């Protein structure tokens, strides 16, 4: 039966593509290849799974839609990809292969499945999902390795700690082990990885909509690497909100990196300039403005700055374990953006892989670094 299904799918894909010509056929073929990559199968086997049952097809297509959303695909592109699959199943219905039709999920259904409110103004342009969990953990380990600590703030058994933009939750989990009597709260659009420590709580939300906590609630508030998700125009308001939920006398620690690497060769510059185009279109910082003004933002929000530290994280095997991690981090970022680069700027995924490989060689030759700024402040007493 499985073999018959595969043969049927082979036939169907061929007929479907031959029914169109020119640009439309190329678009359909591209859509089916993208779907096949998502399913990690050949196009024919991916389509065979799509035809197995109506229930399975609806689930698969919704999962595909969520992944397209996480990759940052434009709404029009998502709708085209899904419409292609719907049309393919429609042909299968007309040929008597299946007795049902495929309904394309709505934007509301996709947003709900992705775990975000419909119409969210989420600006984080890096794709999400399991590979991003691994990358964020690697980034965390690299910074911890260089600092030899998880925090610069002079903590003395804080009762409540808030990690804004907690990502995987790894930083918070390690503080849970360091301060076993403390309550750690993670806040992000995406749920922290499981299992959670006993003294950890997760709150889902969008920082751009404000923090859903009362005033003066936390002894320590931590935020790092959100310049890729918070537009420049929103930073002052965001920092004020962080200060608002910190108790008088409490500590705040902000960590951001410059959106570049130096020294940089031509391949690295090409990747950076393409990423900057994407960031500028979303109103994000592409010049290092945010990393260079964290202390000023805190002071304007009524916080006494007690430490500013700038470190250069090595990128490349030349920099030891931290450099190896940061090389993996940078490589993963650019490869995961390859689909968006192709869609928006014409840099094909195949070409992007070649450029990334060349950039990795440059990181070794030039001993490239990424500059990180950490700022610790204390909220003034009322």
Descriptive notes:
The chain is an alpha/beta fold and 382 residues long. The protein has two domains: 2-113; 130-379, Rossmann fold (3-Layer(aba) Sandwich), CATH 3.40.50. It has helices spanning 2-18, 22-39, 43-50, 54-70, 75-94, 107-113, 130-147, 170-178, 235-244, 266-281, 289-300, 320-336, 338-345, 349-366, and strands at 160-164, 183-188, 200-204, 218-224, 246-257, 303-314, 369-379. Strand 1, helix 8 (170-178) and strand 2 form a beta-alpha-beta unit.
Give the tags.
7 strands, Rossmann fold, globular, 15% strand, 382 residues, disordered N terminus, alpha/beta
Number of domains: 2
Q: Name the CATH class of the largest domain.
A: Alpha Beta
Helix content: 40-55%
**Outline type:** globular
As for the CATH topology of the largest domain, it is Rossmann fold
The whole-angstrom Rg is: 23 Å
Question: Hey, roughly how much beta strand do the residues contain?
Answer: 15-25%
- Corresponding CATH architecture of the largest domain: 3-Layer(aba) Sandwich
The chain-level structural class is: alpha/beta
Let me know the average pLDDT.
Answer: 89
Number of helices: 14
Uncertain spans, ≥5 residues at pLDDT below 50?
A: 1-7, 116-122
CATH superfamily of the largest domain: Vaccinia Virus protein VP39
Task: Give a quick summary of the entry.
Helices cover 51% and strands 15% of the residues. The protein has a 7-stranded mixed sheet, with helices on both faces.
